[in-house]
Amino acid sequence: MNKVELKKIIYDFNGVSSRLLKAHFEEYNSILGLFIRHIEGEELIYEYVKNCGEPTCDVSVEVGEVSNSHGRAYFYLGSTEQEEVAIVYGILKFCWDQNIDIVRVIARSYSTSRNWQDMVRGFNERVVMVLVRHIQSYLVKIGIDMGMDETVKYAISVSGGQVNVASDNAVISATQTNSMPMSMQDLRVITESIRQQAKDGLSGDEARMVDESLDEIENELASSKPRRGLVNTLTSGLQNIKGPVEFMAAVAQLVQFVQSFSG
Question: Average pLDDT of 124-128?
Answer without folding.
Answer: 91
